[in-house]
């Protein structure tokens, strides 16, 4: 188990990094369960109540905070989610923390496949909505041609979009690395 004293620090760290990457990409990192993290909840509706306070859109990420071995994350069908079954497991994650990007709209279902954790309420259903693509950082191209008929006017290069995803990827790598460090530190 991650020592309880470490969880708030991890949460703050992830929330901060999530804020940074969220701003640059207009997508959010949702730390599942907030500062409680991903473990057996105090009651059966804990994660349902958590999800009800959030809005999820395509491109957002779920951040499951847990120590490898103590928990895991299985993505399953609606039917499996209801029954804590495992006849249709679409994704399995064993290395905490797990970051899942919500790539498609609609419902997504997860639970911890360790022991009877799912039966104890360690399960999460999220409804993912679509959203318009975030506005590009470059000014609208029409602005460049206003008041100018000059055919040789330089077209703004589309490249400014690239560093954004690069920054986000770096953010995630950093986030994973820092979390791994903290978790490791907690074990020694
Ligand atoms: C479940 O637990 C959470 C956290 O302790 C609490 O806020 C919530 O009210 C509880 N829900 C029910 C239905 O008891
Ligand atoms: C498994 O789940 C996926 C996604 O929820 C669904 O599209 C597919 O039909 C399911 N397959 C079976 C055999 O239930």
UniProtKB/TrEMBL annotation:
Signal sequence segment: 1-26
A molecular function (GO) term: electron transfer activity
InterPro entries: Cupredoxin (IPR008972), Phytocyanin-like (IPR039391), Phytocyanin_dom (IPR003245)
Pfam families: Cu_bind_like (PF02298)
Gene3D superfamilies per the UniProt record, alphabetical: Cupredoxins - blue copper proteins
Residue stretches making up the Phytocyanin domain: 28-130
Alphabetically ordered keywords of this record: Disulfide bond, Glycoprotein, Signal
Bilayer-crossing regions: none
GO cellular component, as recorded: plasma membrane
Protein name: Phytocyanin domain-containing protein
Protein species of origin: Vanilla planifolia (Vanilla)
